[in-house]
What we know:
Blueprint: H1 17-20, H2 22-26, H3 45-57, H4 67-74, H5 76-86, H6 91-94
Amino acid sequence: MKYDFDRVLNRRNTGCMKWDYLQTFFGREDLNSMWVADMDFMALPEILSPIIDRAEHGIFGYTAKPKEFFNAVTDEGFWKNIQTQCCGISESALLLR
């Protein structure tokens, strides 16, 4: 799947520390903000879709984490897939960790 990392998003006036607090932290706003690891591109559809589905449910009480949650965060194959397909890290580079 191809992702659009070239689309420029205006993050100013959204509560974004990276852009909205330049004046507060550095005394000026005309800086190229590279001081914090905050991404200026949309979240991937694989991230947005479940969040939207959950929000459309409309109930935000206390919930338990399903077994699939724990399987996802502990499954090495899942993370290898994310790193190689999404982030472009070669499988051989993953072996170096």
